[in-house]
Design a protein that fits this description.
Blueprint: H1 3-15, H2 21-29, E1 43-48, H3 52-66, E2 70-75, H4 77-85, E3 92-94, H5 98-106, E4 116-120, E5 123-128, H6 155-159, E6 164-167, H7 173-184, H8 188-191, E7 195-198, H9 201-210, E8 215-219, H10 220-223, E9 229-234, E10 244-249, H11 256-266, H12 269-277
Parallel strand pairs: 1-2, 1-3, 6-7, 6-8
Antiparallel strand pairs: 3-10, 4-10, 5-8, 5-9
Helix pairs in contact: 2-9, 3-12, 4-5
Length: 281
């Protein structure tokens, strides 16, 4: 697939979605035409949308040191993996969970020896505005609160008539982690009928910030900087699979040497500091 024709098909897949997801995502994380030239001369990175604030800063720092053209296409991990499977000319794939990386590895579409887990994240329950003092966190905070959600947490009361916003557990990492945790804690059956599926966790965070939903299951980093959204509690790490973000070169990477240099930088202490500053672990 030629890069010029690829970008149009990718954007069509990201533009829409239930509950106005595309417009909301654009307002928060700027899902726009991929950054950088689409003329086939730049390094092309496919990255999970939730990584955008941190990765933009890291790539900017890399450009300052190393130079070169880098195009980043952000989107849902399943959509990006499918694009690679269909022949999209990406050089690097950064996923929001290992399942989709495993999927591409099994099809020999990524270079296994380049694979690395870059960062980890935390699953939280986000809510709108002010909450009781024992449950609240500052609205701009991405850090987990001291409240750990357990089987006695009054989730049904918090959700009320709903909706509880979350991504699709069938294919989206955030949705899969969320449902797994709720099932482990015995809370899923209490709220399953009130779940509203959204395209990505950033949209869910914005919906609670706007008051369109009382609660959402998202990553901690998705609440960061969203005025009007607060972290109500943290889901125990033992209640769901580890939330890790793997990266690897694709098997068909047109600019493999350049991609290896960027991937090495993403694993460097300097990049780690920038990831830490955006709330990753």
């Amino acid at each position: 697939m030629q890069r010029r024709s690829f970008f149009g098909s990718l954007l069509v897949g990201l533009a829409g979605g239930p509950l106005g997801a595309g417009n909301l995502a654009a307002q928060h994380h700027g899902l726009q035409p991929p950054s950088g030239p689409a003329d086939g001369r730049s390094l092309l990175v496919f990255a999970a949308a939730t990584l955008k604030p941190a990765l933009d800063a890291i790539v900017a720092a890399y450009r300052t040191k190393q130079g070169g053209e880098i195009t980043i296409a952000y989107g849902p991990t399943p959509a990006l993996a499918t694009q690679i499977e269909n022949g999209a000319p990406a050089d690097i794939f950064l996923a929001a969970d290992p399942v989709w990386m495993d999927y591409l590895a099994e099809k020999r579409l990524v270079r296994r020896h380049t694979r690395a887990d870059l960062v980890r994240n935390v699953l939280v329950l986000a809510g709108h505005g002010s909450q009781p003092a024992a449950m609240a966190a500052p609205p701009t905070s991405a850090a987990p609160t001291s409240v750990t959600i357990d089987s006695k947490y009054p989730l049904a009361q918090v959700v009320g008539s709903g909706p509880l916003c979350m991504c699709n557990p069938a294919d989206h990492p955030a949705g899969r982690y969320g449902k797994a945790s709720l099932e482990t804690l015995g809370l899923w059956d209490r709220v399953a009928t009130k779940v509203a599926i959204v395209d990505n966790p950033q949209v869910a965070a914005i919906m609670v910030a706007r008051g369109d939903a009382p609660a959402a299951v998202v990553f901690a980093t998705d609440v960061r900087g969203v005025a009007g959204a607060t972290v109500l509690g943290t889901f125990p790490e033992a209640s769901h699979p580890p939330i890790v973000y793997p990266a690897a070169l694709t098997m068909a990477a047109p600019r493999a040497a350049e991609a290896e240099r960027l991937l090495a930088y993403l694993r460097s202490p300097e990049a780690r500091t920038l990831f830490d500053g955006h709330g990753y672990r």
